[in-house]
Design a protein that fits this description.
Blueprint (H helix, E strand, L loop, with lengths): L2 H29 L5 H31 L3 H5 L6 H13 L1 H12 L7 H7 L4 H27 L5 H14 L4 H21 L2 H25 L1 H11 L5 H36 L21 H21 L2
Helix pairs in contact: 1-2, 1-13, 2-7, 4-10, 4-12, 5-9, 5-12, 7-8, 7-10, 8-9, 8-13, 9-10, 9-12
Amino acid sequence: MKRLLHTNIFTTCFVLAYFLFSFAIVFLLAMLHVSGIYASALATLLLYVLAFGLPSVIDYIALRPYTGETPAQFFGFRRLSGRVFWLVFACAILVQPVMMLISSVSQLIFQNVTSDTMYQMAEMPLPLLLLTSAVFPAFFEELVCRGVLLRGYRETPTWYALLIPAVFFGLLHLNFQQALYAIAGGIFFALLVRFTGSLWSSIIAHFVINGLQSFLSWAVLHSGLYELSELTAQTELISGPAMVLAQLFAPALLTALTLPVLILCLIVLKKQSVPAYPAAKRSSFAGPPLLPTWHKGAWLMYINLGFLLIYCVINEVAFV
């Protein structure tokens, strides 16, 4: 079976498992009369283990007779040197203004359906919040989207391998406001994996981004600043075009300052990692020359993307 077709079959099974387990977990918790923020945390953790972790493990077991790879080799868990680790960490910090700017722009177009949920989650104890919003998402989302999906696209053109998994990753958030900056994040994570040859790079960056945002939400909620911001919004001290400019000014300014440094760090990272990790040459972006039939099986991914797109549209309409 062609690798692209196999990967897209895995993606279809993953999407089905994702929705199946999502509804099953909610139904189970309702039957057990479990509710509140701890029920939400439990549902999130179970979903990541069952919908993300289980299909990935099954895919590895199914392919192991043909690949002969260990789990570390299959998913790309290659060790990072200290210098590469800190470069990845720096990139994760520097990319956040870019993602904040995209998020701010998307909020002008689409409904922000996650802000209230984010602050509800911030009511959890900080360790539990980081576990549910940073540790598990970073590991399991990267396991699927970069460990399995990106790897399966190594026999496709580089632009295609960068774009399609990133679009899938973005739409998997099931709302357009998150999807736009998640697509940018997916491309960024894929570049890290390409440059380092290691899935740990995208896991670390994903954790830093989610962890920092979760900590800031937690700090704002518990410092009383959230109530102050709500009061300011209700009194409409700033409105109209002035509000738009105020919303975009800070992330735009930060992006202008950090983007050149981010690009420089990515260049250094690419130069630093390749000599140190010859295995990177055999990463998800390297492989045999492209065949004229490389796109065989791509249609199945387009169906998955179409389904997720329709779900995002329904979400958008439902929150209008």
